[in-house]
Specification:
The chain is α+β, with helices and mostly antiparallel strands. The chain contains six helices and six strands, in the order ααααββαββββα. It is 34% helix and 28% strand. A hairpin with a 2-residue loop joins strand 4 and strand 5. The radius of gyration is 20 Å and the shape is elongated.
Length: 200
């Protein structure tokens, strides 16, 4: 876009853009409109539009209520989209405590946890667990990177769900995982002492 327009027109377009995609950052919006980040912040304040973190949090709270297999609070990142048994999206921003001190690279366990918890969130059952995970870390992740994970149920066979999870930073794929999850029923949860075969 980056064509100069009047303040009123810019604010109208800004509102439109955020309605289309509530996850645009102020930096992304500033680039789109060819103005400073400060101008975007002032526009948002005048329009009563909260910052992106608050917008993400509001959307995530709605989605956490849909999750059946784990508690919403156990999802690593903000769950911004969820269609049980089909697909989901989460956003995660690693913090300083999650990096290796020497290299400042985010530890793989946090990236894996985002993927695992998103995959579990998709399962339409009282509980589920990972039976098989085939994962690949493709690029290092740093603090300040915004991880967008997209998960999709590729197929279901009985109580087994085959889920692919891809995590990107901007347009670059940094992680890919193929999971086989096993859904557990209420009877299993009541007994808890039974064993269940999860691998295949």
């Amino acid at each position: 876009m980056a064509v100069r327009v009047s303040k009123a027109e810019r604010q109208r377009l800004l509102k439109e853009k955020i309605n289309e995609n509530p996850f645009y950052t102020d930096d992304e919006l500033a680039e789109m409109f060819g103005v400073s980040v400060q101008t975007i912040r002032l526009d948002r304040m005048e329009l009563g539009i909260p910052e992106v973190r608050e917008r993400i949090k509001n959307v995530a709270e709605e989605n956490y209520r849909k999750v059946k297999t784990i508690l919403g609070a156990e999802v690593v990142g903000e769950l911004i989209d969820l269609e049980l048994g089909k697909r989901g999206i989460s956003i995660f921003e690693p913090t300083e405590e999650m990096v290796f001190v020497k290299t400042k690279i985010v530890k793989g366990q946090y990236i894996y946890s985002q993927a695992e918890s998103l995959a579990l969130s998709l399962i339409d059952a009282p509980a589920a667990l990972i039976g098989v995970a085939n994962i690949k870390y493709k690029y290092p992740v740093k603090v300040g990177d915004r991880l967008v994970a997209k998960a999709e149920v590729i197929r279901q066979r009985g109580n087994k769900y085959f889920v692919w999870v891809k995590i990107k930073v901007k347009e670059k794929e940094v992680f890919r995982g193929k999971f086989i999850l096993v859904a557990l029923d209420e009877d299993f949860l009541r007994k808890r002492s039974d064993t269940v075969e999860v691998g295949s």
